Amino acid sequence: MSIRLRAVWMLAAALLSVSLAACGAAPGEPLKIGLLTYISEGSPQNAQDRQRAFDLAVAHLNQAGGVFGRPVETAVGDTALDPETAVVEARRLIEDEGVHALVGPSTSANSLAVIERVAGPAGIPVVSPSATSPRLTDAADDDFFFRAALSDVAQGPVLAQVARDRGFDNVGVIYRNDAWGQGLVQSFQDAWEGAVTAVAVEPDQTTFADALRQSAAGGAQALILIVFSTETEIILREALGQGIYEQFVFSDGVKSPALVQAIGGAALGGMYGTGPASPPASESAARWEAAFVDVYGEPPAGSYAQEAYDATIALALAAETAGSADGSAIRDQLRAVGGGPGEVVYAGPEGIARALEILGAGDAVDYDGASGTLDWDANGDLSRGYIGIWRYTTDERIEEVDVVLFEN
């Protein structure tokens, strides 16, 4: 090679390197997204459906050519239901696996620990599909934490309304003594106009008889349950077996087909609860569910699966918009892809392919998610969304009853 030709080659290589550095992606470096969720503990149905939704999102991205023209890579961390485990797994995904963004954690307590101690200081954007505690609004996250689910400032009033509509004016509450339980019980109490006796229980408790008797001591007509499904099964068996309660109202943590099948429709049929919901007549939700069923043969039975898909897609589209895998660059584009302005695109393989095509042409998108709009405010909270009202049936199913619009 001549000296002149070598000089030209070296200049071209240098310009390519500068160009790639400017867009934040090193040569050959793909976008890598981590899923941080409970697997070994918590609801197996929720864990399975959220991981399936995450995998489906990545499949749709890669079928459309991936991000930066390369397949998106993934890594998974098991947080269990323990904030310390979540911190360790977050560090492993960031420091060892080299993820550029995180979907999760699933719980509010785990999310609070991860964003304040690991992801925020590391500059890694995090979008949780299911962490709903109001405490997360003011977390010390340096604006790296977003969520695809409404804060419980929205769910609490709906939970109170459901209890009132059932004819109750005196209730007991058993709530999980962590960031999620504390936040939701406060939101419920702020909206509740009747008598209430609220009792906190610890995450590692194995019997709840004392808490049940204490919550019922004021003459409660029904029990509001703000705990996870595994704890709820024990509570229900003890409450029914000891004749302390016959009527129950459930929060989103207790929406589980396995639970009604374990306890029985004769006992729980007609009992109501609240939880996440898609907008009525949502084209994006319909496309997403059709794609989910096409791959897995059935719709998700657990909660927050749509939100897990949307969190993954939003992070990928933000990276593509930024032309960078840098955490700050991804963070800075999340509000743009979630709330526009830009061409509205939907969930599902066709919608994601269209989104990447638009971004590849240098134009903007407004992603209308399977779970609803992703219009994030200055705190990373959704400014608009829906809370669903559901009930267990005597034939041991979950029936969706209504949706309530929340706008901040």
Summarize the topology.
Blueprint: H1 3-22, E1 32-37, H2 44-63, E2 73-78, H3 83-96, E3 101-103, H4 108-122, E4 126-128, E5 145-147, H5 152-165, E6 170-176, H6 179-191, E7 195-201, H7 209-216, E8 222-226, H8 229-241, E9 248-250, H9 257-263, H10 265-268, E10 272-277, H11 283-296, H12 305-322, H13 327-339, E11 343-346, H14 349-360, E12 365-368, E13 384-392, E14 398-407
Parallel strand pairs: 1-2, 1-3, 3-4, 4-5, 6-7, 6-8, 8-9, 9-10, 11-12
Antiparallel strand pairs: 10-13, 13-14
Explain what you see:
With 408 residues, this protein is an alpha/beta fold. It contains 14 helices and 14 strands. It has a seven-stranded mixed beta sheet, sandwiched between helices. The termini are far apart. The relative contact order is 0.14. The N terminus is likely disordered.
In short:
The protein has 408 residues and is an alpha/beta fold. It has helices at 3-22, 44-63, 83-96, 108-122, 152-165, 179-191, 209-216, 229-241, 257-263, 265-268, 283-296, 305-322, 327-339, 349-360, and strands at residues 32-37, 73-78, 101-103, 126-128, 145-147, 170-176, 195-201, 222-226, 248-250, 272-277, 343-346, 365-368, 384-392, 398-407. 51% of the residues are buried.
